[in-house]
Amino acid sequence: MKRIVLILMMAVLSLSAATETELQRAYAKEFAFLKAQKEMLQQRLSQVKKEDAARISSAKKEIASLQNDVLVKTQTSDRLGEQLFRSQQNAENISDDTALLESVALQGQSSLAPYGIKLAIDKNDYPATLNQLFAETLKLSRDLSSVNVTEGSFYLKDGTEQKGKLVKVGNIATYGVAEGVSGVLVPAGGDKLKLWDAPASAATATALAAGQMPASLEIFVYENVSKEVEDKADKGVMDVIESGGIIGWVIVVMGLFALLLVVLRGFFLSGAASKTLPVAKETLVELQSKGVEATLNFLKTRKGAAARVMKATVRNLDRDREHVEDIVAEAIMHESERLDRYGSAIMVVAAVAPLLGLLGTVTGMIATFDIITEFGTGDPKLLSGGISIALVTTELGLIVAIPLLLLGNMLNGWAERIKDGMEQSALHLINEYNKQK
Amino acid sequence: MQPALHNLFDQFLVYMQSGGFVMWPLFVLVIVLWYALGYRFHAIKRGSQKSVRVLIRKFDSGKREVPRGLIDGAIVDALQIVNEGYRGTIGRELIEDAFFPYYQELKKYRKTVNTIVMVSPLIGLLGTVAGMIETFDSLGSMTLYSQGGGIAGGISQALFTTQLGLVVAVPGLVVGRLIDRRSKIMELELEQIKDIVCSEEEGK
Hints:
- The complex is a heterodimer of chains A (437) and B (204).
- By secondary structure, chain A is an alpha+beta fold.
- Chain A has 10 helices and 5 strands; from the N terminus they run ααβββββαααααααα.
- Chain A is elongated, with a radius of gyration of 60 Å.
- Chain B is mainly α.
- Chain A binds chain B through residues 198, 218-221, 227, 229-230, 232, 321, 354, 380-381, 383-385, 387-388, 391-392, 394-395, 398-399, 401-402, 405-406, 409-410, 412-413, 417, 420, 424, 427-428, 430-431, 434-435, and chain B through 86, 89-90, 93-94, 96-97, 100, 104, 111-112, 114-116, 118-119, 122-123, 125-126, 129-130, 132-133, 136-137, 139-143, 145-147.
């Protein structure tokens, strides 16, 4: 195997030695060709570079001139745009002003219409229209701010129409003067006027009609004559209670009941109080002069709480001191059942009445809010109805509670004093008896 | 001087009228309240300012004889009973008997004052409610500017009554409490007199 490789190598070496010169020549030829080509290419390259540089510089110049051009044109466009915007704004302002003028003119027209002044709106000459409007308004306001006397008619309280003089104080108040009746007038609806229930205003009306200025003005100021003003009806007690609803009635009935109890208790107490001191004194005199048996007989003829306490005391006079005191205390406790009768019931009513009033208030407020959800807040009359119901119950509650608190406390104090007095008299009796012994 | 006084009275009348119907009851209550307070203040005069022990010794030894106040009077009464020869339990009972008017004097009008102090803010509230009713009524009947009433009248009524109610109640409460405190102290002193007089006599 080694031998074969060696032979092959030898063969190759011998072959290469034979072709070396041929190869060198071929390489030299090729090299010369390539060199020539390289030079040619380098020449062309430098030429191309020169051409390019020239082209680039010319293009740059062109770009610069174009940019200048663009700048100039942009500036022009900006200026024009601004001018356009301004003129647009001006146009808008003018249309706004026109609308404003028109609305002022229309407003003036409609405001003056009720006073019989017609105003023509000239759409091409607003200044003239406005001048006319202001002139008319000035004249009207001078008319309205003075006191005028005109012939006219107004309604009386009973509904009959009465002809007479109308003294108009501007456009906010009117007095009517006719034979026999005169006074301040209020709107009756539909541009009519009626007599208001204010007797003192008659003097004002006649004085104004005669051109004098009274010292004090009885006046009713109204906004316009188309809306009727209701007469304020004098509210009776029943109406007030009625407007409080069921809770109002409950409070009133409770209050009346408690008042009855107060009267009854006052009656009891005055009976007991008037007897206590005289009975005690007489018993003492009797005991000191005649002895226990006679006193007991005397007490049997007497009636009332004080007499019963005295009887219990005298009967047990000879027992020991603490025992007698217990008996006296027990006897007074027994009587206090009668003396304290209704006391707590009265105080309970006095405490509950304001609470019921509060309940009525809450109920009324709920009703008010129900009305608001149903009809909205537009009509103050609807709202004020509910609110005044709410307040009426509070008022009734307080009206019931305050006198009951006062009277109930007074009666309690009175009962306390009577009991103290009875105890004192009984103990005094015992002391005097023991002193005598 | 006279016209100024007259003016003041007129202002007072205007004030009372602008408050509506609850002002006069309230005014009467003020007078009753201050009468009661004045009575109590006068009634609970102690007399000599020294302590009860010192006073008893003085009256007992005859250095002082004329009582100048409630406590002095009580001491004189107690000593009189003791000197009459009633001692021990009986003496104590007799003294208690004799002190009854003093206790009653100390308690007099206490309840009246407390009741008025309690009630007058309620009356003010009543006036407030009445004023609010008037306001809402005039809203309802559209008589907003009518004379002697309307919205402004109702609101001023509401405010004036509350104001007067509080003006009545607050000083009444403060002064009433002060007097209450003094009367409680004096009740304790009456007890002390009883104890001292009886125990000293038993010790003799």
